[in-house]
């Protein structure tokens, strides 16, 4: 089984939404038995659920992330992952300082679609900002999925 790890700051907004969106894409493509998806945060709100607005936003897309539990990124998570997709360059820097040996499998999510942009953090903002974030994540995953699957060694 291949493993995708999404990383953000608190692990209650962007990375749980990205993980939920990616799980749905893999399920729709019939690849969910080949690839697992998880998420973590550099400074996670350990034990906390995904934010209410993140749950509402994905719920509107038919994706339930109500069982998400915030988790602080550990070296074991990096070791187990085949690819680590971070939301901000600052997350990659943090991983570099913590576990530089795994930097070769750490990418900005936007890099999978040929860009180099951070994903805006909607934490604490209005629902519309979560929707904007989810739309951005969805676009990045749509554009980046072929590259993600190639890096996992899975033909699309």
Summarize the model shown.
The protein has helices spanning 14-28, 52-59, 75-80, 89-98, 127-152; strands spanning 2-8, 35-41, 83-86, 106-108. The chain is an alpha/beta fold and 156 residues long. It has one domain (2-152): Response regulator (Rossmann fold), CATH 3.40.50.
CATH class: Alpha Beta
SSE order in H/E notation? EHEHHEHEH
Helical fraction equals 40-55%
Poorly predicted regions: none
- Rounded to the nearest angstrom, the radius of gyration is 14 Å
DSSP summary: helix tally: 5
* Total number of domains: 1
> How would you sum up the major sheet?
4 strands, parallel
Number of strands: 4
- Globally, the shape reads globular
Integer average pLDDT: 97
Q: Assess the beta-strand content as a share of residues.
A: 5-15%
Can you identify the CATH superfamily?
Response regulator
Please state how the strands of the largest beta sheet are arranged side by side: 2-1-3-4
Structural class, please?
Answer: alpha/beta
Q: First CA to last CA: what distance?
A: 16 Å
CATH fold description: Rossmann fold
Report the CATH architecture: 3-Layer(aba) Sandwich
Describe this structure in words.
The protein has helices spanning 14-28, 52-59, 75-80, 89-98, 127-152; strands spanning 2-8, 35-41, 83-86, 106-108. It has 156 residues and is of the alpha/beta class. It has one domain: 3-Layer(aba) Sandwich (Rossmann fold). Helix 1 (14-28) packs across helix 5 (127-152) and helix 2 (52-59) crosses helix 5 (127-152). The model has no long low-confidence stretch (mean pLDDT 97).
